[in-house]
Specification:
Elements lengths: L1 H19 L3 H27 L6 H6 L9
């Protein structure tokens, strides 16, 4: 229940943010940060269903092990 309250607080905070600031640059930066979070979570879900191990960046991104002999 505590996690749900934090999520609601976060959503309400972002919903009322345009009333407190009129800076388009700040709003654009925050929306791009939220979009990056959304994309990272979607990649996390797709990688989990696809069986990506995520041991290291080279194996996850390119499928090539960074240490010779590592599966």
């Amino acid at each position: 229940m505590k996690d749900f309250r934090l999520i609601v607080l976060f959503a309400v905070g972002f919903a009322v943010l345009p009333w407190f600031t009129h800076s388009g640059v700040l709003l654009n930066a925050l929306m791009m940060a939220l979009f990056a979070c959304l994309m990272s979570q979607s990649w996390n879900i797709l990688g989990g269903f696809g069986g990506q191990s995520g041991k290291n960046a080279s194996n996850t991104l390119f499928g090539v092990p960074s240490v010779p002999g590592q599966p």
